[in-house]
Amino acid sequence: MKILKIIFFVLLISLIFTSGILLGKNLVNKSDPLTINNFSPTITPGLVSSIKIPFSETKYDYTHQVTGLSFNYPSVYKVTEQPMNGGVDFVSLNNGDGVKIDIYISDNPGGKTLDELVENFDREQEAGPLSIPNPIDKKYVTIAGEKAMRRRWLESGTGNNIKGGDEVFFIHNGNFFEFIRFFNSTKKQNEFEDILQSITFKGASIYNFGKVSFPYEKSWQMIESQRDEKTINFFIKSLCINKESKTIISNSEINCDVSIVDYSPWKEQMTILNLNQFIEFMSSQGRDSTMPTPFTNNFVNDKNISIIKWVGPHPLSGELIESYFFQYSDQTSQLHFVHLFGDPVRISANNVLLKSFVNEIINSVKVN
Questions:
Q1: Exposed, middle or buried, 287 (CB in 10 Å: 0-12/13-18/19+)?
Q2: Cα separation, 179 vs 354, whole angstroms
Q3: pLDDT surpassing 70 at residue 205
Q4: What is the 3-state secondary structure (H, E, C) of 92-150?
Q5: At the top level of its lineage, which domain of life is listed (predicted)?
Q6: What pLDDT sits at residue 83?
Q7: CATH of domain 55-203
């Protein structure tokens, strides 16, 4: 009887031990999903190798310092920036897996429409060394509140196993933006859509007029034009700024609240070598010896630009006007002279509000 009790006790202990092992295994198996779902940085990658976390969950933010263009992009993309000839900025995103997004940012000195700029883009592509196919699915969409053209293309002779691409074009604050995406067998379409949807413009709105820029309100009317002025051998770009929109009648003059005129001399114009000579030349146009000598004052604005203020009678009307002049050199070392002035009639009438508007612009203007 004693032996039977001992055997029964041993069997009971064995049963409890075995049940404990089985119960422990069940608990371990049930806890595995909890451990995975509550992924902890302390777990080594080898323990969660079956878990695939989408790269798109980790986003970086890119901002173009000059234009304020900003967007989010997946962390797998490598971003590079590079200035190009002709005042173009180039930004490239590459995910290392066959998808590449090239972004070109340039100014729009001629005030061309979106369609005209895209036509110029197409002509440049046709003249290039690579065979670019005709785009398909052209449509207009909205990007960051701006009208944008979007289209795509399929296989071409662009090389590097490229199977197709997307193109998106839009204008913002006088700048032309081109987003061009190339892909091979891996499209990653959702990533591109997310980038486009995240596009915003940070900071104050900046208007870029060639290399000249300044903050502005989006409600202002901005009208650009350009021409060759053969009588004085200058190429002229003009910007008309109105705080409130005015009706534009074709082939007629418009009175601008503020005008900014960029003069770049032709090669034939070799007599004007500095800003003082340019001011003397401009102030002498249409003047006679009976007109009083204008007053000039040199100062440096808030953006560290050296400016000459010229006060004197208008060469043609004789009205007292105020003009501002400064100069800069572009990437080709071409000298530019900039003339900024308010509506002569209202300035002559001592319009305080207009003078304040002119001062607001001249003190914030800078050269990029």
A1: middle
A2: 39
A3: yes
A4: EEECCCCEEEEEEEEECCCCCCHHHHHHHHHHHHHCCCCECCCCEEEEEEEECCEEEEE
A5: Bacteria
A6: 82
A7: 3.40.1000.10
